[in-house]
Amino acid sequence: MKKLTLLVLALTALISCSDDENDVITESTTLSQLEIDDLLFLREEEKLARDVYLFSYDKYGETIFNSIAQSEQQHMNSVLTLLNTYGIADPASSERGVFTNQALQSLYADLTNQSNISFLEALKVGATIEDLDLNDIHEDESNTTKEAILDVYEKLSCGSRNHLRSYINQLVLNGENYVPQFISLAEFTEVINSESERCGY
After folding, report:
1. What is the pTM of this model?
2. Residue closest to 85 by CA, chosen among 150, 148, 15, 22
């Protein structure tokens, strides 16, 4: 009888542990609507950067646009991995220049129109996109505590800082300046005056 009682207690404890583990898994893989919205927007925002840079590369043939476009594809892949992990449908179209988010669709039209003006304007567009991306990711970081998401955000921020440095360097070489529109002047100054980083994605 004593052995049977111990067995029942052991099974009860095992079931309780299993329930606790399931609760942990459920909690860790459940996102708030704000977290979901941030990831959906970010997936297409990275696509926006890639597609605009490919537009500029097609027009001017300058390596900087193609190189950074390939990096943006890696950013897109990183966000897609998160979407798949959390079971969120991918909003990104496989077609260049096509977006589910209509604000990004309009922004794509505006940025490609500006990029079409000249090589220097295309560089300014590149700086603007990276400036905006950094600002948006800062806001996204404040909306989550999940390490997996924060890790991706930091890697994307690192990449955007490198991209911003590249565009600013090219603008300076061509006698042009860029004034940040989204991140603070202090952050902008720190970024462009620091060395390129290894981002690990």
Report:
1. 0.85
2. 148
- Residue 104: inside a domain: yes
- What is the Cβ-side half-sphere exposure of residue 79, based on CA atoms within 13 angstroms? 27
Q: pLDDT 10s digit of each residue in the chain, 201 long?
A: 333 333 333 333 333 333 443 433 343 568 999 999 999 999 999 999 999 999 999 999 999 999 999 999 999 999 999 999 999 999 999 999 999 999 999 999 999 999 999 999 999 999 999 999 999 999 999 999 999 999 999 999 999 999 999 999 999 999 999 999 999 999 999 999 999 999 976
**CATH code assigned at 122:** 1.20.1260.10
Please count the other Cβ atoms lying within 10 Å of the Cβ belonging to residue 90: 15
- My answer on whether 121 and 140 are in the same domain is yes
The C-alpha torsion from 186 through 187 and 190 to 196, rounded to 10°, is -160
As a whole number of angstroms, the distance between CA 35 and CA 3 comes to 50
Any domain includes 197: no
Q: How far is CA 15 from CA 3, 8, 27, in A?
A: 18, 11, 18
Task: Assess if residue 149 is contained within a domain.
Answer: yes
Question: Which residues constitute the domain of residue 127?
Answer: 32-192
